[in-house]
Amino acid sequence: MDKIIISGLQVESLIGVYEWEREAPTSLLLDVEISTDLQRAADSDNVADTIDYAAVAELLMVTAKQASFELLEALASKLIDTLFSHFPVQQISMTVIKPGILPTARQVAVMLTRSR
Ligand SMILES: Nc1nc2c(c(=O)[nH]1)N=C([C@H](O)[C@@H](O)CO)CN2
């Protein structure tokens, strides 16, 4: 299956289990893989025949900004559901990365893969 991939998309979201995490939005990074048939766009060379990755990125940024969850898992699920409701895609893999939150790790992340 063909894929559209967005890597390292920076978003802001109110996220975290602890009180101190819920006082202000946190910067997160998203890696997204969207499985969809790209043959029509490959033939036509027309953005109207594909999923515009700029529109995907904008939707992810707005949705994350409006969200308020404790767990990365819950945010990842919400972002996937939102993409499914706006775009005709078969499968989405979503990695939500929280940099610098653990003193002994560069970053932590969850990855969810969901199909229609
Ligand atoms: N599996 C998860 N574990 C934890 C999460 C999470 O989102 N998913 N979050 C936290 C805290 O919010 C963390 O950011 C600070 O310790 C802990 N564990």
UniProtKB/TrEMBL annotation:
Enzyme kind, highest EC tier: lyase
Classification via SUPFAM superfamilies: Tetrahydrobiopterin biosynthesis enzymes-like (SSF55620)
Keywords per UniProt: Folate biosynthesis, Lyase
Sample GO molecular function, one term: dihydroneopterin aldolase activity
Domain of life: Bacteria
Record has Lyase as a keyword: yes
EC number(s) per entry: 4.1.2.25
One Pfam family named in its UniProt record: FolB
Catalytic activity, reaction form: 7,8-dihydroneopterin = 6-hydroxymethyl-7,8-dihydropterin + glycolaldehyde
UniProt cross-references to InterPro entries, sorted A to Z: Dihydroneopterin_aldolase, FolB_dom, GTP-CH-I_C/QueF
Protein's pathway: Cofactor biosynthesis; tetrahydrofolate biosynthesis; 2-amino-4-hydroxy-6-hydroxymethyl-7,8-dihydropteridine diphosphate from 7,8-dihydroneopterin triphosphate: step 3/4
Keyword Cell inner membrane (UniProt): no
Ranges where the Dihydroneopterin aldolase/epimerase domain occurs: 4-114
Family: Belongs to the DHNA family.
Biological function: Catalyzes the conversion of 7,8-dihydroneopterin to 6-hydroxymethyl-7,8-dihydropterin.
Protein name in the entry: 7,8-dihydroneopterin aldolase
Organism field: Pseudobowmanella zhangzhouensis
Gene name of the encoded protein: folB
